[in-house]
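@channel sequence for tomorrow's demo:
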Amino acid sequence: MKTNKLRLALILIFCFSTFQAGALLAQVDQKAILEQIEASRSIGQERWRELVEINMQLSEEEGELFWPIYNQYSDEMVKLNDRLLKLITSFAESYNNENLSNETATNLIQEHFAIQKQKIKIQEKYNTKLQKVLPTKRVMRFIQVENKLSALVDAGLALQIPLAE
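C-alpha cells (generated this afternoon):
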C-alpha cells in the first residue's frame, strides 16, 4: 500500500516538474512565468515534504529531532533552487531569442557547476547535523529519499529543456 502511494506521489511530482519547466521555456512573458512557477513551487514543496514524511517512517521522538533540522535544510535548498530557476530562466531567454553566445554559455555552465557544488555542501552539512540526532541508517534513508525525488525532478527538467544550439 505504501509503495503505491509513493509511486503515485512520485508521478505527481514528476508531472509537476515537467509542466513547470515546459511552461518556462514555452513562454516569453517573464512575470507570468515567475508567478506560475512560484505557485507551483508551493504545492511541490508540500508534496515533497509529504513524501519525505511517508518514506522516513519516523517515530514521534525521531520526528521531534528530525523536522526542525529538515526545515532548515529545506530553506537552504529552496534558496539554491532559486539559483537554479534563475539559471534556467537565463538559458530560456537566450534560447527563445536565439542569441546564446559563447560567453553566455560559459557563464551558464559555471553557474550550473557552482549550484551542483553548493548542493553537495548543503547535503554534507545536514548529514552531519542529522547524524548527531538520528541513527546513521535513518540519515542514509533520508539522503536516499532526497536523491530519488531530485532525480525525478531532474528527469522532468531534462525532458523539457532543449539542447543548446
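heads up for whoever presents: Helices lie at 2-26, 30-56, 60-96, 102-131, 136-160.
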